[in-house]
Amino acid sequence: MKPITLKIDGRTVAVEAGTSILDAALANGVYIPHLCYHPQLIPVGACRLCIVEIEGRPVTTSCNTPAADGMVVRTDTGEINELRRVLVELLIANHRGACLECSTSTDCELQKIARHVGVDEPRMKRLRRPEASAAIDSSNPFFERDMNKCVLCGICVRTCEEIQGACAIDFAFRGYQTTIAPFGNVPIADSVCESCGECVVRCPTGALKPRNYVQPTREERTICTYCGCGCGLYLGVRSGRVVSARGDAENPAGRGNLCVKGRFGFDFLNSPERLTRPLVRRNGELQPASWDEAFSLAAAALSRHRGGSCAVISSAKITNEENYLVQKFARAVLGTNNVDHCARLAMLPRWRGWRRASAAAP
Q1: Who contacts 138 (Cβ-Cβ below 8 Å, separation ≥6)?
Q2: Do residues 199 and 38 lie in contact, with contact meaning Cβ atoms separated by under 8 Å?
Q3: Considering the entire predicted model, what is its pTM?
Q4: Are residues 99 and 16 in the same domain?
């Protein structure tokens, strides 16, 4: 696609046709405040903070306005900054403070924007700030929902619908009582929420936060071991313990998205009960052994059991290719068709649905 050129704050930039003004600015190092925008979601311009001036047009939102060839855009004028300041003040007026107690304090997009537009204490004192009234929803074992910190940007709602397809939450009630809630305003654990955490990682404030969050000191890139999909993730490490997990956007399998196991199921890595070396039974007790000794004992035991006298069970934590080798080893080497897999029951309803659909097909 042929690139186009436009001017942003006096700088000439080149982008692909169809790129939004906001994406064009961010890609070229020009910061435009935004709360409701996320590159993986359809832009809606709900927060209005990404407004810009375009020569020959009225003030408009930049996240859902395509860049045009020869366009002249101004992102940092006096009028724009004053409008943004008022918008941020109105958001903060209904936002619970206590930022130092919030786990997302250093990563809070609302804090970043407030500093950028210059919201100060004297201006905030003019506003009548309501007391926090919403109870914290701690029903989910992996994350908490504090609607006192919600700015109604809608990112969580759109994430649940557009990316996860669960539609577990939506805007509820009206006017000053508007909030984000599951159907019937029940606790999130009683809804159809799949606990994937996609909404949590995209929330620009502390309204959604992981439980017992610990800031990692470094991250290691790896592959999730829970199934054979091969989703990439970064494991956060601190003091020799895994304390967090986030998706790897460059991984072709997961593309940054994770399920509940991949995002929150890393506690077993820190368990003191994990095996760190082979164990063999001697005199009725399990004792440490070398890998060569363990393999030799396993091979000797398998050689005594052939055909129907043995069975092989595989795991979803290895790849599809490795599972194929397991069943090949069972049938070709051990001579048994007694092969099972720990994910068999999870796939059974889908298999039955496929059989019914196939039977109904002409």
Answers
A1: 144, 211
A2: no
A3: 0.79
A4: yes
Please report which helix (H) or strand (E) contains residue 241, including its range. Answer: strand 241-247
Same-domain pairing of 297 and 235: no
167 and 88 together in one domain: no
The structure tokens listed for 20 are 């939004």
User: 345 is written with which tokens?
Assistant: 């029951």
According to the model, what pLDDT value does residue 315 have?
85
Please say which residue of 250, 270, 290 terminates a domain.
270
Residue 242 CA: distances (Å) to CA of 12, 251, 321:
45, 20, 28
- Nearest in space to 151 (alpha carbons), one of 192, 111, 98: 111
Number of domains making up the chain: 4
Examine the domain organization and report whether 193 and 281 are in the same domain: no
Residue 217 has phi, psi (to 5 degrees) of -95, -20
Cα separation of 88 and 84, whole Å? 6
**What pLDDT digit, counting tens, does each position of 167-180 carry?**
999 999 998 889 99
204-234 pLDDT, tens digit each? 998 999 998 898 999 999 999 888 788 999 9
As given in the structure block, the two tokens for residue 113 are 């924007």
What is the average pLDDT across 114-129? 76
Which string of b and e fits 24-47 if b means at least 16 CB within 10 Å? bbbeeebebbbbbbbeebebebbb
Domain enclosing residue 322, as ranges: 305-362
* Nearest-angstrom CA–CA distance, 286 and 34: 58
DSSP 162: I
